[in-house]
Amino acid sequence: MDYRDRHVVVTGGAGALGTAVVEALVTAGAVCHVPCLDEAEAQRFRLREHRGVALAVTGNLADEAAVIRLYRDIKPLWASIHIAGGFAGAPLRDTAMATLRQQIDMNLVSCALCCRAAVTAMAGPGGRIVNVAARAALEWRSGAGMTAYTASKAAVAALTVALAEEVAKDNILVNAVAPSIMDTPANRRAMPQADYALWPKVEDVAATILFLASSDNRVTRGAVVPVYGKS
Predict the structure, then answer these.
(1) Which of 132, 121, 120, 159 is nearest to 6 (CA)?
(2) At the top level of CATH, which class does the domain 7-225 belong to?
(3) In CA terms, which of 78, 96, 126, 204 is 20 to 30 Å from 22?
């Protein structure tokens, strides 16, 4: 896939999946715009000095003004990939209101604001949007014990499908991926007894995202693609 000179926003680009996506994109010739919550996150990002990476310390992506500033000067924008989010695992009865709102902000609101800004920036030539939902967003019963997270990611899936229908006529194709537990260092530390061989690798999930965000994808829209590996 040829991304030469295409400008792509990757939220959550400094995380495990985000880094795999950014690495694949810059290898394919893209210019990646990666927003970071703070300077510390920017300094941890191992691709921060790559010539194809433009870092910006934006703060919270659930802040409307921060998102508007991020997208305002990116022209032309080809694709926007929304990986940023957060996880909270607890039964609903043990979930504080602050945690519920945090999950909605981190997962749904940030995604919705970035989608809106991307659609505005892509007006005219069109482009691609890829969101990141979760397996529990498709298989709700599997979200027991992490209800707030499940609900917020299910909302991301619904947002994806509705927006895809809304902007198809504008040559903007909107899709999402729905990973199961991915093979990352943090997940290995959290679940040391798990069979890691069953988990999808971030590089493989990144490859699916790259196709959906590419000009090679000419017809797929409104899909929430399971990326479960063998799990």
Answers:
(1) 121
(2) alpha beta
(3) 126
